[in-house]
Amino acid sequence: MNEKTKAYLAALAFSTIIGFSFLFTKVALGFASPLTNLAHRYTVAAIVLFILQQSKLIQVKLSKEDILSILPMSLFYPLLFFMFQSFALQYISSSEAGILQALVPIITLILASIFLKEKTTLVQKFFLFLSVAGVVYIFLSKGASFGAGTAIFGYVLMLGSVFSNAINNILSKYKGGQYKVLDLTVVVILVGFIVFNCLSLFSHISSGNPMGYFEPLSHVSYIFSILYLGILASIVTGSLSIYAIVRLGASTVSVFGNLGTVLTILAGALILHEPIYSYHVIGATLIIAGILGMNLMRRK
Length: 300
Hints:
Structural class: mainly alpha
Number of helices: 12
Keywords: Cell membrane, Membrane, Transmembrane, Transmembrane helix
Family: Belongs to the EamA transporter family.
Subcellular location: Cell membrane
Shape: globular
Protein name: Permease of the drug/metabolite transporter (DMT) superfamily
Membrane topology: Multi-pass membrane protein
Low-confidence stretches: none
Distance between the termini: 19 Å
Radius of gyration: 19 Å
Number of strands: 0
Number of domains: 1
């Protein structure tokens, strides 16, 4: 199996894990705030990495200079990405956030062409927009709208999350050529662990309920969700996405993120028995056609 095929499989696996992560996030948020959820998620990830390092299953050796060089990645993802997203959802609906999130491949394409000199054909651009159109169509069909009644501030915050995601894709491509995939993943995870835990603990202490940090951990379903989010949706996806971006390019891999929308719909139908409507099928078809078209054109 050549490197290009492995990279496509990595992108597909990354999209699959992310697609199902929304289901586990939904379960986890039933027990804890978004900030505490993130704190526990990155605590699990940090503990797993520590165990792997101590057991010699992985070897990570980074100097202070290396860590400082990688830090900008962790600033944009997970820190700014999740912070902007969490606060944006206080002002706009999840459907509106989903529509704006679909803009990530377009922003990534623009930034990649400027900073990474990645080139895409007109046909590839068409398929990229087709994939984005599929996501937007699904959310609009669900009733999302951008009326005057919703807060502009929420849109600005969500666009901050979108740009943070896109910039992280660019940095992943750039830094991936200088460091090992695992080294980049470890720094990002540790920064998320430190910052989210500090913010969560401060939030609980300031509200006069420091034990609130630990309360969700008494629920089995919450622990299971956090394990999925911490191990698969943080460590594994972090490594897979960087691996794929380095070999396929930031603009190409970013389109795979839209596949997560399709898989989220399937997960909801299979596990939560949520209904699938005709607009789901139409939107999913556009998304998959866009992904296949862009990547098939890339091979030619």
